[in-house]
Amino acid sequence: MEFVDLIRTPKLDRVTLHRPLCGSIEGTLCITSHHLIFSSRKDGDEELWLLHRMVDYVDRRIGALSGSLFLKCKDFRILQLDITGVEECNNVANSIECLSSLEGKRYYYPFFHRALFDIMEDGWTAFSIENNFARIKLLTDDWRISSVNKDFTVCASYPERLIVPKSIEDNTLLGSAAFRYQGRFPVLSYFHRKGKAALLRSSQPMVGTTMRRSKEDETLLHAVLGNGKKGYIIDTRTQNFAQMARTKGGGYEPEVHYPLWRRLHKPIERYTTLLDSLSKVIEASTDTGVSVDKWLSRLESSGWLGHVKDVLACACFVAQCLDQDEASVLCQRCPCMCLLCGSVLGPRRGSCTGAWF
């Protein structure tokens, strides 16, 4: 497939761009293989470069002699393009729709980009696990870096190098990964200086209806606590949903096999539910024709503020367990919880470099 086959009108003059909080601009629209470029061709005016994959939806409003395209972007921007000519308007819309939804990673922009400037920092080396581990090493000698996930052979969603308890061998990690959904065995996400409490992340255990168990997984979690300490397992599902998961091969850690860990349910809706709720908020916020009362009603019906409250409340509860109880915590099914909790406890985690770990 050639990109040029999808671009029916590569260049179009007399196009008007409307952006929120900005005045209207008339200029030239160009469509390339990966970008939508708009320029007024005037000195001092900025150009708009929009990556096709940033477009989530194209809304066409076609008239008798012209049309308008509303580009709803994934960063919540809404851009309006007024185009003279019905055929030209449809050609632009068709091209954007095709180029924004190409399947196959080999068509993505990073594989075609050639930097025209000196690269000051390499993203592949900007975030070093050694630097993060060095700070932990100053506090305790109970952890190590493992390369058990080299080439992502154990877990596709974990990095190649992970921080795990020093007393645990890689064979034990492999056994635990075989017991966890998609191989996401418990790994360190944040280490709290006070009380030397650890925040770990993992997926649900594959217990099933037969109550399967894993000695390796039990050994791994026991090694996290040390002698005389207890921890919390935060399950972001409801208790009924966790029970139902057993019928599909999943489940939760039985207390009889994990006596030092106390399981608590802090329900958070599924990721798809959160996205649907966010979409309703964006739709309500971009509808400028509704009254204030109607907007408030749509905001409340979206449930978005309730979801935000639940996530923040859970993150604060986990932070309290680490800081006040000085107890280690294992979070399941919600990676954002580890990031939020770390941001609450450590200001550095709020930065781009501090968030990666």
From TrEMBL:
<comment type="similarity">
    <text>Belongs to the protein-tyrosine phosphatase family. Non-receptor class myotubularin subfamily.</text>
</comment>
<dbReference type="Pfam" id="PF06602">
    <property type="entry name" value="Myotub-related"/>
</dbReference>
<dbReference type="InterPro" id="IPR029021">
    <property type="entry name" value="Prot-tyrosine_phosphatase-like"/>
</dbReference>
<dbReference type="GO" id="GO:0019903">
    <property type="term" value="F:protein phosphatase binding"/>
</dbReference>
<feature type="domain" description="Myotubularin phosphatase">
    <location>
        <begin position="123"/>
        <end position="330"/>
    </location>
</feature>
<protein>
    <recommendedName>
        <fullName>Myotubularin phosphatase domain-containing protein</fullName>
    </recommendedName>
</protein>
<dbReference type="InterPro" id="IPR011993">
    <property type="entry name" value="PH-like_dom_sf"/>
</dbReference>
<dbReference type="GO" id="GO:0005737">
    <property type="term" value="C:cytoplasm"/>
</dbReference>
<dbReference type="GO" id="GO:0010507">
    <property type="term" value="P:negative regulation of autophagy"/>
</dbReference>
<dbReference type="InterPro" id="IPR030564">
    <property type="entry name" value="Myotubularin"/>
</dbReference>
<dbReference type="InterPro" id="IPR048994">
    <property type="entry name" value="PH-GRAM_MTMR6-9"/>
</dbReference>
<dbReference type="Pfam" id="PF21098">
    <property type="entry name" value="PH-GRAM_MTMR6-like"/>
</dbReference>
<dbReference type="GO" id="GO:0046856">
    <property type="term" value="P:phosphatidylinositol dephosphorylation"/>
</dbReference>
<dbReference type="InterPro" id="IPR010569">
    <property type="entry name" value="Myotubularin-like_Pase_dom"/>
</dbReference>
